[in-house]
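Researcher: Let's do a round of design. I'm pasting the structure tokens now; please hold your answer until I've finished.
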């Protein structure tokens, strides 16, 4: 069995703006989450769904797959659906 993991990532969070790009022990959070999802058994593809060019460019820069989603998505569920 093969699955696609979609990680919703929003830069403009009201509680912690820019959180996906914040480094934890020298590694950006979105890259950590991407690597964990990539290592999961049965996951053949990992896609970061974002509405922000900074996140999109960062993910593509380390070789990850990213898609742009509408800013109008109200939450991670809608962002995942849009992806």
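Researcher: That's everything. Go ahead.
Model: Designed sequence:
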């Amino acid at each position: 069995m093969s699955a696609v993991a979609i990680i919703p990532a929003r830069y403009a969070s009201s509680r912690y703006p820019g959180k996906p790009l914040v480094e934890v022990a020298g590694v950006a959070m979105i890259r950590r989450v991407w690597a964990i999802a990539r290592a999961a058994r049965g996951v053949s593809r990992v896609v970061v769904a974002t509405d922000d060019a900074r996140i999109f460019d960062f993910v593509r820069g380390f070789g990850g797959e990213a898609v742009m989603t509408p800013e109008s998505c109200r939450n991670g569920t809608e962002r995942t659906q849009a992806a």
